[in-house]
Amino acid sequence: MVYYQPISNEGGILLLSKQLIRSLGLWGAVATAVGIVVSSSALVSLGQGFGIGGKGFIIAMLFALFLNLCVAFSFSELSGIIPRAGGINHFTLPAMGPFVGMVAVISGYVLVTIFAGSAEAAISGFIVTEVFSVKINPVLVSIVVVLFLGISNLFGVKVFSWTQTILTTLLIGSTVTLGIIGLTGNATGTPVTNTLDFNPMGWGVLSLTALAFWLFVGVEFVTPLAEEIKKPKIYIPLSMILGLVIIFIADLIFGFASIKYAPLEGLAESASPHVDAAKAMLGDTGLIWMGIVTILATSSTLNTLISSISRMLYAMALEGQMPKVFSKLNRWGIPWVAILFMSLLFVFFLLIGITNSSSITTFILAGCLCWMVAYIIAHLNVIILRLKYPNIKRGFKSPFGFTFQIIGIVGMLYVIFNIFPDQTIKMNIYTYTIIFLTLTVVYSFCWVKFVMKKRIFETTPIEVLTSHTEEEEGESEQLNSPINEGKGVNI
């Protein structure tokens, strides 16, 4: 993150130092990629998926993993060209212009954050009051968690990195440990007799791909931190790929352990199958343990959402696509207004009670469907930029031409058309999605046309987005070298 800091005020002239903060290492980036994915809702999807498909659910998981690898390849190439905090918006500016970029960010990320993030925040309160039997308003607990994470994000990317690494390590470690205990027969519970067939659904198991997709969605949240990651052109693709592999292994271990101790029908119909499975393995100890894991998953997800979405808003404000107030940075180079805005959004939706409504699942899936639209835009960006700028420097290049982009687009369309098995809920999801996209399109159109006063599809030359990035990277190497450590660059 580039920010300006006063270093003297001689003769009434304010001198500034330009400092490029690159302090997030590989494991901090991996923790960011993993942290947003392993959420409470993802644990629910995991349990229900194995409950419906049995061991054959692994086929749907592998298909979903491949689709998300396509996403990782596209975002890695885009971030390698434009390693900026704006994420998908900055990748879209030179390909399809500010209008499409705004639609992608607002519909695919901000709306998802508002509904899915608020629901995740509510879960922490429910767990504390129900699993740990603490006599306190669950909404108050959720608000405290949100405010704690929001405030911690104000003190620099190092604090975020440490928080995220600790949360993710405990989360993945606990999930894998529980799974190993179950698989090795060291659990105190009694194994159950489930169907011995590996894949009783046959090819029908592919209809669970939409359910499996949520186990991996979100690894690209590491890209908005591109200006704060060391060696972003290497660490960003590596962190996404490692993150997907880590998630797959952890989910596989815990999933197979779950169906060893819990009946398939119970997992398929449960609203919290991961908690039921842990209780079946270790009784009350497993219940408390999974309660802690759920809180860790919720906190990790919220921490990543607050950090990454705020940087998207910050970068869009710099481009004139959002109110300028979001571009304000504090002394640690953190977009504090955007972080407070995201935190207060969570608090607002917790207070009005939308996270407790019966339709919250529909809201979340509608937001996630918008997420799929953003992924399709990312794949199209790769194709367009390859054609427009074939010789541009790329830190990472997706292999085999446009193969992964085409497969990714087709796969996203498949997930969209198979978003939910129940037709009534499916139509409700589509209705909310159309409402979300319509509001986003109208807002983005009016902002670009009347505030930015630009043509809707007016693209930004890629040289404008990359030239100063290369300059900043050069300055970063000087600033981070031993002889220049602690020194600023006067401008």
Automatic annotation (TrEMBL):
It is found in: Cell membrane. It comes from Neobacillus mesonae. GO terms for cellular component: plasma membrane. The chain crosses the membrane at residues 24-44, 56-75, 96-116, 136-155, 167-189, 201-222, 234-257, 287-314, 334-354, 360-387, 399-417, 429-448. Residues 468-491 are annotated as: Disordered. This is Amino acid permease. Pfam families: AA_permease_2 (PF13520). One of its GO terms (molecular function) is transmembrane transporter activity. Keywords: Cell membrane, Membrane, Transmembrane, Transmembrane helix. It is a multi-pass membrane protein.
